[in-house]
Design brief:
single chain, alpha+beta, 5-stranded mixed beta sheet, 13 strands
């Protein structure tokens, strides 16, 4: 427990240190980079006096020492006029001159004649009041994207370091007190809770070995009973998720295996028939190319779903017109609709100014309209309607295709689920489009539903909140 509290204290101190240093570091880097841009033409033209004046002026404004160094690390100009001709062996300068970095930043403590570089943001140590703390910020002098020298800006940060270490000492003290109190309380209550939890512990161990069907008796009352109920609920959900995962892996494997098997057959035909007709060979290669495209589609959709499942995908909200988005998407599909002799009718009664992720909603609208086109017979009609209802935008996409059976409608947004598997593969679908639509609409706080009858077409309805940026 003490180690845990120590780890938490270390992490929080690091976070606080990051917060305190971020503004200073960003400001120093920006100033150094700007100064390097101003000095590069002067340095290239060997205008020593102008460089010296610029350094002294910038040093007065920034409150630190600034030096210009050549590619060997020798000081060519010093705002204090003390180290001209000396060689600076500083890690930040080495990063610029030897390792090709454009900017570098570091914090150092100066003790007598030695310079020690420290990671002050992640190191707990006592404050040494005798040491002089400085921040080094370096930037490359460049010409035509080629490094020709470096600018080094050093500034004292003694006051900042004192605040960081003082805060560190306080936080360590508070966490030690909290750890001691928690340890005492844990020792008092551990004996009371040990016996009733034995059964639960054994069940958890079984679950850790992969047995998600385990359940514990719901006995007694109070917290322990609620704990047992919660555990059983969690166990049931994990069992369901494990089954879903197995099904998903099975479906994904099947979807990836099908185009691979097709390509293997086509390639073997080409390999073992060297005298194959050139037209036939070209046709086989075109088929292989289509299967590769299909694999890319499946993998792309899978990666999109994985990003959404792992919560790494974020909304990049901007203000735009949903009506204009629908119009643009219809224009993108115009050629496909003409090839299928299909008619698209738009009814846009409101511009529906949205504060949302344009790219993701474009994919939602495109998937729904393309899906309607795929499952509508040649010469069919697709209707897209957009209205505003209160603070929501309601988009409906209706086709006069074959419709969806009632038994399939509950699963239409499941991954890899197809009503007509043979036709879906023929039209190039991956079985993931509607699932992506469902997830992206949920990310926006909306809902998507389907209403369909066999032989009478289908209507997909998306309701999205209109947020004002």
């Amino acid at each position: 427990m003490g180690v845990s509290y120590y780890a938490v204290a270390t992490s929080l101190i690091g976070l606080v240190g990051d917060y305190l240093f971020d503004d200073r570091m960003l400001q120093d880097r920006a100033n150094t980079k700007r100064l390097a841009a101003e000095l590069s033409p002067l340095y290239l033209g060997s205008q020593t006096r102008e460089i010296q004046k610029a350094l002294e002026s910038a040093s007065s404004d920034l409150g630190g020492r600034i030096m210009v160094l050549d590619m060997s690390g020798k000081v060519q100009a010093d705002s204090r006029r003390e180290l001209n001709g000396s060689r600076m062996e500083v890690a930040e300068v080495a990063s610029i001159l030897s390792h090709g970095e454009k900017t570098a930043y570091g914090v150092h403590t100066l003790k007598t004649e030695e310079t020690e570089s420290l990671d002050v943001l992640h190191l707990i140590q006592p404050f040494d009041g005798r040491a002089e703390w400085v921040a080094y910020s370096a930037a490359a002098l460049t010409h035509n994207d080629r490094t020709i020298g470096a600018v080094l800006y050093s500034a004292p940060i003694q006051d900042l370091m004192q605040r960081v270490f003082a805060l560190q000492d306080q936080m360590v003290l508070y966490f030690l007190i909290a750890a001691a109190a928690a340890l005492i309380i844990a020792m008092v209550f551990s004996r009371i809770l040990t016996r009733p939890i034995v059964s639960l512990t054994r069940s958890i161990q079984r679950m850790g070995r992969g047995d998600f069907s385990v359940r514990v008796p719901e006995r007694g009352s109070g917290e322990l009973r609620r704990l047992s109920e919660t555990f059983n609920t969690m166990s049931a959900k994990l069992e369901m998720l494990d089954q879903s995962r197995n099904q998903f892996v099975s479906n994904a494997s099947h979807e990836l295996k099908t185009p691979l098997a097709t390509m293997k057959i086509l390639l073997e035909s080409i390999i073992y028939q060297p005298d194959m007709d050139s037209d036939m060979r070209t046709e086989f290669l075109n088929d292989i190319n289509k299967e590769i495209d299909r694999l890319n589609m499946i993998i792309g959709d899978l990666l999109t779903l994985v990003s959404m499942d792992s919560k790494t995908m974020r909304l990049n909200r901007t203000t735009f017109s949903l009506a204009q988005l629908v119009t643009d998407t219809a224009h993108r599909l115009d050629l496909v609709l003409k090839q299928r002799n299909q008619e698209l009718k738009l009814q846009l009664s409101d511009r529906c100014e949205m504060y949302a992720d344009n790219a993701k909603l474009t994919q939602v609208v495109y998937n729904l309209m393309e899906n309607a086109s795929k499952y509508t017979q040649e010469g069919g009609v697709i209707r897209v309607r957009l209205i505003r209802s209160g603070r929501d935008a309601i988009l409906t996409v209706t086709d006069n295709g074959p419709g969806i059976p009632k038994a399939d409608q509950a699963h239409i947004f499941d991954r890899f689920y197809r009503v007509d598997k043979a036709r879906s593969r023929e039209t190039g679908g991956t079985g993931l489009g509607l699932s992506i639509v469902h997830q992206m609409v949920l990310m926006h706080g909306g809902t998507v539903s389907v209403d369909s009858e066999e032989g009478a077409g289908s209507t997909f309805t998306v309701e999205l909140p209109i947020h004002q940026g």
